Amino acid sequence: MKTKYLISIVGPTAIGKTALSIKLAQHFNTEIISADSRQFFKEMHIGTAAPTPNELAGAKHHFIHHKSIHDTYNVGAFEKDALQKLSFLFELNDTIIMVGGSGLYVDAVTHGLDDFPEIDKNIRESLNKDLKTKGLEHLQNQLQSLDIEAFKTIAIDNPHRVIRALEISMGTGKPYSSFLNQGKAKRNFKTITIGLTAEREAIYNRINERVDIMIRDGLINEVKNLFEYKHLNALNTVGYKEIFNYIDGSWELDFAISEIKKNTRRFAKRQLTWFKKNNNTFWFDYKTPINNIIKTIEDVI
Question: Structurally, how many domains does the chain consist of?
Fold first, then answer.
């Protein structure tokens, strides 16, 4: 049986992953699976930098705007759905492209989810109460003291991720990070991981430019239309929560925009920390000619 290959494209936000994935899909005459958890939701277009209609027309995409912000969808469900889709696509192609900056979702497909012990539900209930009464920063500080590795790598602005890491650490007496990357599931395909990167200043400049483009393209109106749903987990994310604060009068617009840029830069730093853990990644500067990247992939195959 011929070996099947998943080409996984990773890197920080705004680095050019979408453009590269389309070029590779066209070269290998194949399709793209998105592993960007924010782009799953059909109500969120501009603030998630989802592929444009022209980009979507460049190659067939899967898992773009296939869910609603009102749906319950998590990494476990995505792993199951993505593997099922890959099984079908590999019957038609020997090579499939996966692209996305959500490290946990990428790892779920390529390696499988980590196995965690059952935790007393009272711990989570207590942490949820602390979130309401003491705020997210209090929980972040707790995690920093209990598991500095998790503090550095997880989506620290996502209260659900912070609470999950804390409940594991508190419930087992062991760091949450110690349970990661232990026993991994076997896959019937091989993964070739391509990472895009740049000097920090270049990454930050690209992020700032992207945020400015989002504002120009109508991000504020997009967020206004979602304001009544701001309590939903899907909307507790960079680019939306800052504009919510502008809409409700808490912040001036210029400050909200500057916070989006700052928080996106922090997110990019965490993405790189996460993806750098994979020592098998082929890293390229974002300006590398496409033929050089194709050659590396074809050499591996």
Answer: 2
Task: Name the helix (H) or strand (E) containing 10.
Answer: strand 5-10
pLDDT confidence of residue 184: 66
Question: 140-169: per-residue pLDDT in tens?
Answer: 999 999 999 889 888 888 888 899 899 989
Adjacency order of strands within the sheet including 5-10: 61-62, 32-34, 95-99, 5-10, 190-197, 282-285
The CA distances from residue 6 to 12, 30, 128, 249, 277, in Å, are 20, 11, 38, 46, 19
Q: What is the C-alpha to C-alpha distance for residues 203 and 14, in angstroms, rounded to an integer?
A: 7
Q: How far from the centroid of its chain's Cα atoms is residue 256's Cα?
A: 22
Q: What is the pTM of this model?
A: 0.83
Structural domain harbouring 295:
5-113+182-300
Domain CATH number, residue 202: 3.40.50.300
Question: Under 8 Å CB-to-CB from 70, ≥6 apart: which residues?
Answer: 229, 232
Task: Note whether 86 and 247 are within 8 A (CB).
Answer: no
Confidence of residue 66 (pLDDT cuts 50, 70, 90): very high
Q: How far is CA 97 from the centre of its chain?
A: 16
* Strands of 179-241, DSSP E: 190-197
Do residues 114 and 181 make contact, with C-beta atoms less than 8 angstroms apart?
Answer: yes
Q: Which residues, other chains included, contact 170 with Cβ-Cβ below 8 Å and sequence gap of 6+?
A: 123, 146
- Least Cα distance to 98 among 27, 182, 10 occurs for 10
- Residue 214, amino acid: M
pLDDT in tens, 191-216: 999 999 999 999 999 999 999 999 99
Closest Cα to residue 40, out of 14, 13, 67? 67
User: Residue 238's closest CA among 216, 210, 217?
Assistant: 210
Residues in the chain: 301
3-state SS class at 236: coil
Residues 241 and 103 in one domain: yes
